[in-house]
Design brief:
alpha+beta; FAD binding; FAD/NAD(P)-binding domain; 2-polyprenylphenol 6-hydroxylase activity; Protein visC; globular; six-stranded mixed β-sheet
């Protein structure tokens, strides 16, 4: 085997699809089941920016995904505790939309459907990894009933609790955001008009993300564990009332459609992303606060970067696990991840501080940005994936080449 990818989530599947045309023999190992066709339930969603859409379009996965994706043409962000407010709209940025809200499982389904067309890609689902060891030339993975898989390169795309990261003894920096994210789908009294909204509350941000149908949204309500426990203990009616109040009735009366789920929010960052012939991507290498909705985009750009460098190595007749190649990938994507992690931490700390002076400063700062078109355009260009050190496949048309 040339490459073994551990994890058949969106990142692992995308990397396999990027490399499949090269003719490399690729194995994907996934502890869960294979994606099965079905309608989107929007239990877990991601906001895909334009860079991610360009990537998925180039891979042929976007047409199937677009059927259930909800475009958003505007964004409104405000502070519940001050006059701070900022708004963005696609027309001002000369874009058809700012991004798309997509069902996470539908992303996997679209990628998997494309991958099944490649005979050089194999899958092992419901897979248990027994051990993982490497030599100078190859990586050996022992799975299930003592099945052995040898490969020249092993990629850990197995999420925040990465087995690959642990077995490769790659050290991890982490801290607890001291928040939980409550996710659910809701019905709204007022049409969302394809606008993504987020309000910063004293206990954390609440995002209202538009879904297909003008009166459906997905919520991501980040709050302290104590507040999360209080909310989850409420019946549907009381939860809906609390949600309506927290959103300041911006979409009128809100009604819970399903049982909310919650998960703890933690920052994780691997100090090293590689060891020998093992390399990490996406959530296995980093996880960030969901307040800006950039986690999925960051991971997809990781695999696009790694895929680009591996393709360059193949074109030059080099080893796909050559140390200099993997270090280039690590330097490239570490810089992007570090920038976003620091930005999310600054946002989180800045908006959770109740000191009157700091509240005034952030209110003045956000309102000032809203009045400066050139600065707003720089901020939104980064959020849209139209600026920064992007892989070639994800760049806007005409964007210059990346610096080496």
């Amino acid at each position: 085997m040339d490459i073994t990818i551990v994890g058949a989530g969106s990142a692992g599947l995308t990397l396999a699809l990027l490399l499949a045309p090269s003719g490399l023999n690729i194995m994907l190992l996934e502890q869960g089941a294979a994606p099965v066709q079905g309608s989107a339930d929007y239990q877990r969603v991601s906001a895909l920016n334009l860079a991610s859409v360009r990537l998925l379009s180039a891979l042929g996965a976007w047409p199937a995904l677009a059927q259930s994706a909800q475009p958003y043409h505007a964004m409104q962000v405000w502070d519940a505790d001050s006059f701070a407010r900022i708004e963005f709209d696609a027309a001002t940025e000369r874009q058809a939309q700012l991004g798309f809200i997509c069902d996470n499982e539908q992303i996997r389904r679209a990628l998997y459907q494309q991958l099944t067309q490649h005979n050089n890609v194999q899958f092992v689902f419901n897979c248990t990894i027994n051990s993982l060891v490497q030599s100078e030339r190859e990586v050996l993975v022992n799975i299930n009933q003592q099945q052995l898989i040898l490969s020249r390169l092993l990629v850990g795309a197995d999420g925040v609790n990465s087995r690959v990261r642990r077995d490769a003894q790659l050290p991890l920096t982490h801290w607890d955001y001291e928040q939980q994210a409550i996710v659910a789908t809701i019905s709204t009294e007022v049409a969302h008009h394809d606008c993504a909204r987020q309000v910063f509350l004293p206990t954390g941000p609440l995002a209202l993300l538009p879904l297909p149908g003008q009166h459906k949204c997905s919520i991501v309500w980040s709050c302290t564990p104590a507040r999360a426990n209080e909310l989850l203990a409420l019946d549907a009616g009381a939860f809906s009332q609390a949600l309506t109040a927290a959103s300041n009735s911006v979409l009128g009366v809100l009604k819970l459609d399903n049982t909310p789920n919650a998960f703890a929010l933690r920052m994780r960052y691997a100090n090293s992303w590689l060891r020998g012939r093992i390399v990490l991507v996406a959530d296995a290498a980093h996880s960030i606060h969901p307040l800006a909705g950039q986690g999925m985009n960051l991971g997809l750009m990781d695999v696009a970067a790694l895929g680009e460098l591996i393709s360059e190595a193949l074109a030059q007749g080099s080893d796909i696990a050559e140390p200099r190649l993997l270090r280039r990938y690590e330097r490239w994507r570490k810089a992007e991840a570090q920038t976003l992690i620091l930005a999310m931490e600054a946002f989180k700390r800045g908006f959770s501080n109740a000191q009157p002076l700091l509240k005034l400063v952030r209110a003045v700062g956000m309102s000032s940005v809203d009045q400066l078109p050139w600065l707003k355009s720089k901020i939104i260009a980064a959020a849209l994936g139209n600026s920064g050190d992007l892989p070639k496949i994800a760049r806007p048309a005409g964007k210059s080449a990346r610096l080496a």
